[in-house]
Structure formats: structure tokens, C-alpha cells
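Good morning C.,

I know you're traveling, so I'll keep this short. The sequence:
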Amino acid sequence: MTPAMWSLVARRLIRLYPRWWRWRYTDEMADLLLTRPPTWRDVFDLAVNVLYTDLHPDLALTGNESAYERLVTLMRALRSSEVVVFCAFTLSIIAWLQFGGLVDGGPYQIQLGVTQPWPLLALDSHNALSMAMDGVSAGVDLAMLAALIGGVPLVVAAWRRAPRRRWLFFVPFGVAVALFIPIPIAAWIVGPVAVFNLTFTTPVTIAYLCSFLLGAGVSVWAVVHAVTGSMDASVTLLRFAFIPTVMLTGALFIMLGATLAWGVIAHQQAPHLFDQASMTTGYATVTSWGVDTVLLAIAALVALGAMLSGFAARTAARTATGA
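The C-alpha cells, ready to paste straight into the viewer:
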């Protein structure tokens, strides 16, 4: 592209900035464009800063900060975006567990044509419904791997930097024990038929679903509070954690796409099971599938927005430090 074309693109980008930014800096930017035609790197920086300013109006930088203050602000924004992606991942896992409980061990096993319980991969290329479930499983596996790769270093850093908050990391383990205890008790009282799952089938399962959601919320709050309440992690660590964040966001969209495909295929292959407007059948119907799909879509879109926010902060930090 010619300098004149880069200059035109830059002027278009300036119009995309928030009104308060344009009121303060438009004249200065116009003078700068007249003095020196922008390069592709200048246009790229303008585009990234448009994104950052729109996503972080509360953290907008005026240019009067020191290099250290600017870097700290941007790294906090990056850390916040990574935490939001983790929260979106948790929401997707809840939807995945609920969806899997409605598919695994129910009448869909005949349609899936597998003997092992989901989410183990069957890889039956002649069974579209089974392949769709394999797609969901692959997305879950990738999301969990990315969450571990990106999350463990941040947890270790928070553990070292904030000793007084270490007890918060034990909250998820306590919640897991509390959610497991009712299962053997119910099996002992009622017998092997007693099953706890995340469905709306019976009052017992509804109560268990509510307690699971409460426990998941408490666990997420504890981990997020422990990580964000510690001293700022290193720039290198936060930049590294962003890469698994991108992987995790992609995995959420894989889960969403495969779940959507599963519903379409189930409608075609098993309408007698799927085409029911009920949440209490004990297996997946169009209603329960729709609820889980909406939750996965919300999780994927929230993760995408947070990832873009993190990308903007990460790129702006690289520009600020010259790294």
C-alpha cells in the first residue's frame, strides 16, 4: 500500500475511537499524520489501541504515565482478561457436565453405537452422532489442557506472592468433597439405583444441580480472589499465559460447534428422543440441548471478548516497552 493509502486507513481508524478520546487527541493525531505519513506499524498500533480503548475505558491511558505505570496498568488488564476466560471455561464445563449426563448411559447409547461411556473418544467415522460427541470431547480435552498450561503458573506465582491467601486454593477441594459425600450415602440408603447427576429429573437431582452450581461459583470466586489479590505477576508469566488463553477460547468454540452439530444430527437420526420440549426426561431433548448450547455460546463469546481485550493489552505493553 502507498503512504497515502496508509494515511487514509489511519484517519478512518481515528474515527473509531471513543468520543472523549477524539475530543482530546484528534487534532494532535491529524497534525502528526500531516508531518509524517504513517507506516503499516503505525496503523497496526492505532487499530490495537482502538480495541484497547473501547474494551478498557476505565483503564484508558493518557500518555502522561511513566513507563512503569503504563506497563503495570496494561498487565493488570491482561491478567483480568485471562481470569475472565477462566470463568468462561468454568461455565462451559458446567454445561458440558450437564449435557454429558443427559447423553451418557441413556437411550442415546444405542444411537451412538458405543459401549464405553462418554467422553471417551470412539472415532466411528460412520456414525455422525458419535463423531459430533467426539468433537465435543476433543474441545473439552483441549480446553482443560490449555487451562492447566496457562493457569498452573499463575496459581504457583500467587501461592508464592500471597501466603495469606493460600487457604483460598483449598476451597475447590473442600467443595469437591462436599459434593461427593452425598453420593455414597444415597447409594447406601437407597441402593445402587441412586444416581446424582446435573439434571432436572427429580427433586433430588435438582437439589444436587443447585448445590453443584453454588459450589462451582464459590470455587471460582476463591481461585480468582486468590490470583487477583496477590501481587502482580511477572510480565513474562502473564504474556505466556495469554497463549493458552487463545487455545482455550478456540476450544470453547469447538465445543459449541460440535454441540450444535450434535443437536442437528440428533434431530435427524433420533427425533423420537430429541424432539421433545421437556427438561425432565432424563436424557437430552431439544429444550435441554438448547439451554446447554446457549450456555456454551455465552461462555465462548465472553472468552472471545476477553481474549481480544488481552491481545490489545499485550500488544500495547509490547509497544510501551519496545519488546
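Safe travels,
E.
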